[in-house]
Write a structure and sequence with these properties.
The chain is of the alpha/beta class. It is built from 15 helices and 17 strands. Strands 7, 8, 9, 10, 11, 12, 13, 14, 15, 16 and 17 form an 11-stranded mixed sheet that branches. Strands 3-2-1-4-5-6 form a 6-stranded parallel sheet, with helices on both faces. Helix 1 (15-26) crosses helix 13 (305-322) and helix 2 runs parallel beside helix 13. The protein starts with 5 loop residues before the first strand and ends with a strand.
């Protein structure tokens, strides 16, 4: 039986929208063979009408009002590539009200408003697909939602922001400060003119929120994520970590915890022997530990026109395949059946257990290390390794670098507060978390 074409409305013809149009048209025959029916973008909406008309060359209707797509009875599926929280949310909810299936790459929208959007879609019996919202072309959503469905997921750690990974790779390779590498990343197009969401960890936290919800069957809890970026990271800490056998990556981490789940984004020391520590440049990688499958790693381009378009179109194919299926028999939005979602809280960062890297600027005199170790011992914190840098010529101060064994963060913070009050400690401590992932 030959099925009619899936009629698609595309909102937003930026980098990913243009890539989606190009890949869908270039590979239309192959995609149809997989979907079982043609998939045609019949209408597009973009404020830049001239650009939209030039791209589509008369093959689709061009509108300047995205809401018209959401209400168009001749459209089965809308692709939301507008971005942001505001209009995009209104557009998606309007499309759902009009019984349209939705494909989106908007991680910020889902992390902040996914619970509301999924509830509305469930009530209306439509699909919301979002593979492109996390790690670009890497099929991590499908892997978590379907491929690993037999597993009890234990933890996930991901390099899920290419901009920050590029910056950290360059800082390590060239010994340059953050500000210099950021300018280079902007020149090359890896970083936005306003890079705040990337370098302060917000983008990674949006993505970590989504994969955490799918891994553990919990609602989106972005507002409870602990978020730290890389803008204050110094090249000397990257170099010291390297001397100790570690690399620093901005990781999105989510774990099962005795009292709930962990959801955090921050610079993290990882052994340079680990595969994820060797992911360089603007590439992404997501490391998943399941109880049955063990460790699995997903690697690839996390952004870009065609890698992200690959994920958008994969979602369109899924919609085409499942269009006639009873809604109760479709893959749940967040992998778990809606009535089986768990009310697990996000554990405060103060209760998280980790190992820690400390860099202390101290006076170069006897007894300094003994004073520091005494404070740590009082807090039941043991030292794994340390080194003291030789002071520069003519200087009466130097750096002491410590790596601790695992302890609770609030104990570490209390010890640091005491250490910083020592008369031989000359500046605020630099503290970074370290993860073994075993």
């Amino acid at each position: 039986m030959s099925l009619g074409a899936l009629r698609v409305g595309l909102a937003g013809l930026g980098t990913v929208g243009g890539g989606t149009w190009t890949v869908l048209n270039r590979n239309s025959d192959e995609i149809q063979r997989r979907a079982g029916r043609p998939i045609n973008i019949t209408a597009v909406a973009d404020l830049d009408q001239a650009k939209a008309k030039a791209l589509t060359s008369g093959k689709a209707r061009v509108l300047n009002d995205a809401m018209a797509l959401a209400r168009d009875p001749e459209i089965d599926v809308v692709i939301e590539l507008i971005g942001g929280y505001g209009f995009a949310k209104d557009f998606v909810l309007e499309a759902i009200r009009n019984a349209k299936h939705v494909v989106t790459a908007n991680k910020a929208l889902l992390a902040a408003h996914g619970n509301e959007i999924f509830a509305a879609a469930r009530q209306r019996g439509v699909m919301v697909a979002f593979e492109a919202a996390v790690a670009g072309g890497i099929p991590i959503i499908k892997a978590l939602r379907e491929g690993l469905t037999a597993n009890r997921i234990e933890w996930i750690a991901g390099i899920i922001n290419g901009t920050t990974n590029f910056i950290l790779s360059e800082m390590r390779d060239k010994g340059l400060p953050f500000e210099a590498v950021l300018k280079e990343a902007q020149r090359l197009g890896y970083a936005e003119a306003d890079p705040t969401f990337d370098v302060e960890g917000v983008d990674a936290a949006h993505k970590a929120t989504i994969i955490s919800a799918i891994a553990f069957g919990v609602p989106m809890q972005f507002d409870r994520a602990h978020i730290e970026g890389i803008s204050s990271l110094q090249a000397k800490d990257i170099a010291y970590a390297e001397q100790l056998g570690y690399r620093i990556k901005l990781l999105g981490i989510t774990k099962r915890h005795a009292d709930g789940i962990e959801l955090r984004v921050h610079p993290t020391l990882i052994s340079s022997k680990k595969l994820i520590a060797n992911v360089e440049g603007a590439m992404n990688a997501v490391w998943v530990k399941g109880d049955a499958v063990g460790d699995t790693m997903y690697y690839g381009k996390g952004a870009g026109a065609e890698p992200t378009a690959s994920a958008v179109i994969a979602d369109l194919v899924d919609v085409a395949r499942m269009l006639t299926a009873d809604p109760a028999n479709r893959v749940p939005y967040l992998a778990f059946q809606p009535d089986q979602m768990a009310a697990l809280a996000v554990v405060p960062i103060a209760q998280v257990r980790s190992c820690y890297y400390l860099r202390l600027r101290v006076k170069d005199q006897p007894g300094v290390l003994a004073d520091i170790t005494r404070v740590l011992a009082d807090g039941q914190i043991s030292i794994d390794t340390f080194f003291q840098r030789e002071p520069d010529e003519g200087m009466a101060e130097t750096d002491v670098v410590l790596i601790t064994h695992q302890c609770v963060e609030q104990d570490m913070q209390a010890a640091i507060a005491r250490i910083e009050k020592l008369p031989t400690v000359l500046a605020k401590a630099v503290m970074l978390r370290m993860e073994a992932f075993v």
